[in-house]
Structures are given as C-alpha cells and as structure tokens.
Write the structure tokens for this entry.
Amino acid sequence: MPNISQRGVNMPASPIRKLVPLANKAKAQGIKVYHLNIGQPDLPTPEVAMDAMRHVDRKVLEYSPSEGIRSFREKLVLYYEKFNIHVNIDDIIITTGGSEAVFFSFMACLDPGDEIIVPEPAYANYMAFAISCGAVIKTIPSTIDEGFALPSVEKFEELITSRTKAILICNPNNPTGYLYTQKEMDQIRDIVKKYDLFLFSDEVYREFCYTGAPYISAFHLKGIENNVVLVDSVSKRYSECGIRIGALITKNQMVKENVMKWCQARLSPPLIGQIIAEASLDTPEDYMLEVYNEYVERRKFLIDGLNRIPGCYSPIPMGAFYTVAKLPVDDADKFCAWCLSEFSFEGQTVMMAPASGFYTTPGLGKNEVRIAYVLKKEDLAKALIVLQKALEAYPGKTI
Amino acid sequence: MPNISQRGVNMPASPIRKLVPLANKAKAQGIKVYHLNIGQPDLPTPEVAMDAMRHVDRKVLEYSPSEGIRSFREKLVLYYEKFNIHVNIDDIIITTGGSEAVFFSFMACLDPGDEIIVPEPAYANYMAFAISCGAVIKTIPSTIDEGFALPSVEKFEELITSRTKAILICNPNNPTGYLYTQKEMDQIRDIVKKYDLFLFSDEVYREFCYTGAPYISAFHLKGIENNVVLVDSVSKRYSECGIRIGALITKNQMVKENVMKWCQARLSPPLIGQIIAEASLDTPEDYMLEVYNEYVERRKFLIDGLNRIPGCYSPIPMGAFYTVAKLPVDDADKFCAWCLSEFSFEGQTVMMAPASGFYTTPGLGKNEVRIAYVLKKEDLAKALIVLQKALEAYPGKTI
C-alpha cells in the first residue's frame, strides 16, 4: 500500500472541525451539543435569496464563467462602493467560498519556501492552505492581555527575510474579533510598501463592526493598490455559508491573469450559489440591521457571561462574531474534548474550538478557546451555564 | 509590485477555456459560435433535480459536513452497486466537482517531485493540479493511428523511477473517448501492484459507453483495492455541470483521513449542489436512456461528418462525448484562434479545443483538436459545415 504524502502528514486538522466525531458520539447518546465551535450563524438566510433559488428559470444547470457570473460581479462593484472600496468588474473574481480565494491567492503569488507573515492567533485554515502550496507561515503573536492588538512594526520587521512575500491579515479578525485601527493599518501599509510585499486581506466580516470605530479596508490604503489581494465571502453576512461563494479582488493585473488559470482549472464556481449570492445583495436594510443588532446583543451577553465565570476572561471583540477567551484549565484541547466525551449537564454540553489550533508558536493559546456567538441568546445562556458547570467538574481545572 | 509565483507562470492556460476571450469578441460582433470546445451538454437537467432545488425546505443555507451530506452518500453507495462497485458510505467523500477530487487526491498522496504516469492525450487540468501540488506528470503518448489504445506495459515501465507514485487514467477517456479493455485494465493493475502505486481513476463518463464493450472500473480490479482512488462527478450524467458536485472514493483509510484534512480546510462542498445531486440519483431510467440514445446518434453523426471532410480523420470514440480529430492544418492552436478571430461563414463560427493542451510531449497533437459532441444534431450539422468552410479558407491548410 503506497504511502500518503508528507504534506498530508503535515496538514493540521481543523481546530474548528476536528472534534466533530466526538460531538457526533455525544449526540448519538442523546446529548444536546451547543455549537460554539463554528461560525455557522443560526439566523435565517434572507428571503430574497431563498426566492431566487426557488425560481431559477433555467433548463440546464450549466458551468458558469470561470471568473463568475457577470451580473453578480457588476452588483458587487456597487456593493463595495458603499464601503468606499472602488473596484472594477474585472478586479473581481468569484470563488468557491472565501477559502478558495485564500488558496488561489497563495497559489498565484507564492512559491514553495516563500514566507507569509501573519499575526496570530489566526484563522487556522490559512495554515492548511499555506502547507498545500508549500509556503511558510511566520507568525507574530498578539496577546489576549493586549486585547489582540496588532504587534509592533518592529516585530514584523524582525521576521522579514529574502523569502518574505506577503503579509496576511483578517480584519475584523477571526478568531479574536479585533478590528485594526487606522494607525495599525497605516503601519501595515508602510511595511508592505517598504518591502514590496503582497497584502492578503481577509475582510469577510466587514459588516460586523460594533464599536463605532471605522472598518479600514486594505483597499483604503494609498500607494499599495497593486499589492492588495482582498478575500471576501457572502457566507456570514447573509447566513448562507453552505452556498460556498466568495471572491478574490485585486487590481494587480498579473495576479488576476494568474489566478484565472486556477479558476479555469476548476472550471467554475457553483452556479446556484452565485444566483443566491447575487440576489442576496438586494437583501433589505432592515434584515441587515436586525442581524447586526442581534449580534451586538449576543456579543454583550456572551462576553459579560464569560467574564462572570470564575477564572474566565475574554476581551471585548470589536467585530466579527468570535472571541478568544482564557479558561481556567490546564489544556484547552483536552478540556474541549472532555466536554464532548466525558461531560454533560442536564443532558447538554458545549463544543468549542481549542485556540491552540489558531497559533503556530508552540504553547500559545494552551488555555484559550475560540467561541462563536452565532446562537440565539437563550441558547448562549444555556451554553454559558453548561460551560460553567463543566469548568467546575473538569479534573484539569486550575482554580 | 511583487512578482507572481513561478508556479503561476508554469501553470498552463486551459486549452478548453483559453480561447474564451476570442469567442466573446466574436459574439460581440454578432457571430454565432458553436461550442465544440467544452463538455457542457445542452440537454436539460432532470426535472427531479430542478424540483429538489425549488423545494429546498430550510431556513438557513448552512455548511454541510466536510465529507458531504450523509443521505446523499448513502444513495451513492446504491448507485455504485449498479456498476458492481462495492463501497461503503465511509469510502465516499463529496467534493466540489470532480476537479476537487483530482486535486485532493494529488495533495493527499503526492509530495513535490513525486511522479504520476498518465497516458496522453489527457484531460488538461490534471496538469494544472499536478503543478499546483508540485507533482510531475510523465506522459506516455497514445496515438490517433492506434485509436488511442493504452500504450504497452513496457512503455509504462520505462517511465518508472524511485519517485513514481501513481498512475492516472480516465476511463471512458476524456479527450479521446477511448474505453479501456479488460486486458488493458489488467495490465494497469499488474503495474500498480508490482510497483505499489496509487491508481487514480477518473470515471465520470461511465454512463456513456456506446459499443457494448464493458466499462471496467478500477474498483473491479482484484488485489489493488487499497491503491485505488476513484474520481467521480455528477456533472455530465445529469447535465448539471454548474452545481459543482463530485466525489472521491477510496478504501484506503490513510488516504481518506488525509483527504478529510483538505475537506475540512475548505469547510464544505456546496449545499444546494448536493441536494440537487442527491435528487438526481432518482432520475427516471427513461431520461437516462433518452440521453444515452441522443449521444449515440450525435456520436455517429459527428464522426461520420468529420471523416467526410477532406483531410479530416477521427477514430470512433467508444465512450464519453469527445473525440480527438486530426485536421489538415499546420497548427491547430492557430487554426482554432483563427476560426474565432478571422473567420465566419454566414455569421457563424466554431470553437474547438486545440489538442496540444492535452499533450505534454512537445509537438504532439499539433494538428489535432478535441471536439465535444454536446450539441444537438442540427447544431452539429451546422458546425460541421462551418468547420469544412473554415478548413477551405484557412491560410495554413495542408491540403
């Protein structure tokens, strides 16, 4: 039997999904599992999107263009205008989820051995895509005690080598909920410019900024227009993660042409997903506002609740719908597995994503978890009680 | 401005899609373009599939499991049984089109520098996926004069090195329409076994075998059950290329676990596509028969027509819905571009895929094109007339 690839051995399991088999076992035993592990909102997909799907007027569900349906890309141009992001239709390439946009960015811009600097904790799948294409992620730790603010410019410069090709940020941030300030974004721009790097900017949570502080897109930064590759997705903002529609946006002609080779290799992004996503752009403002207000409330409720549990600490996330919280446990990986396999309270338990999977520096995040506040308040309330009971019962507790 | 990757420079443009800009220009000038270049059937998607989409009874279009929806995989087990392919639900991983199944197979099984032996001409995107993961495709030419039969075992063995990790076949074959015989499949099995290789077997055209000769799946071969990775797709058999649903099927536990890491990294395959594909498995037999008969007729019509054009030759494809035909031209790349940019007959022209893109051996396929017979007979008839007129007018004609 031939061996699998070393690359495959090196691939990390998703910290968000690796505990799924344990969760399935718990469910099979009749235990109710609160999913705090995954950014799967429980909010309804907009009616206008569902209607578009139900009224598809085609005889053949055929390939779409490799770069995506034109009318959808035209409407996206207008959507981005609202955020002061000025792009042309040719700058927008539709991808199979934001995931594929990250992957194609890496493939088109990075060769094996090329290095990307990423503030950590970071969305775990960046690592998986980097391994897929042989690129090396160099991380700069941000810390929970500083609310996961951007590390200093010096820290970036310490990591720059002749192989450094890109900086990757996620703003608002998954997993921390941090929102980069104008000053921080200017610092990133300066480094990108000084060393002529790509700036991969994952901005899928732009609609979820809660503090009144402005959302600064990488495309707002002057003088690096050709360095920016923006990653986007409709998944979160319209609660339609399953349709797998994202976008890669760049003004860099060479990158565009190159990314198109991968787009053509995989033929086309999902047709029905694009139809749904295009219709979603017409979602009424009151839906968006309702969703926004819901997350504002959930955020307050969750963070207050977490900080009331003895030994727990979470900074207040400014955006997205995650937080990274510190728990009074020896090892959050063990604790999260234990919650699913050996614990329940009144027939319920919680599933969280151990934060270690969002760091590459060994040992970091060992007592941290990522929690998504994508459940309704009454479920969050129950989950918080279960979490507190679990922390009281856990053999590896540290208080 | 930072440079794109060398990998990107090395990526070939799709021979199927690279002429799209020229085709778009021709269309903008009001010219009717017959698409013989792409395997996009014009047949309607089954009603049962469209109905499933129109009646999706969900509030939230959420992520599906990374390995695909369970009920869909259960039904696929029964589908494969009909072809004497005995697999369990856990052997089936749903992918975003057959493309992703090829890509994940390569990623999970091959490291940079590992070699795959592929009979050529071969589906061009194998090359793109190989470049993506740093693997090296070594091709063995099959020739139009021998009807694209499998090259001899000796030819395979000549190419085997310490880095050879896999053989890749497509059966029935895209682009040639060749269907491997039992004897040929046994030869492949013997090599796979002798050198302990992976056998990647792309069998997406299994429903399209026209000669009465049996379709032999890689899973029918005894003694290499753990070596086989089967690539499948619902795109062609239900004329639903746009939904992007395929499958990777293997009994090799290590490969499965490894592929799942990539599945988790990209989160999930398209939800609506899976719902449509699952429903498609209930397509009535009479639809399948009608489609089959349609292709039988189109095949005969196209091949007869091609072989009547002076200087043209096409063997009779035994399966799939393509043929590789020899044309009396100096360079099929130039000819195909010329048809779109400088030629029209009564306001019409043809788009074909130059076969050079399906070979890696330089110079091979120079006067060959791949033609898909996915258009209805009356369109094929017009396309054949246009092709004949183009060949008469083309400055680089060789007769």
In short: Residues 285-308 of chain A form the longest helix (24 residues). The two ends of chain A are 49 Å apart (CA to CA).
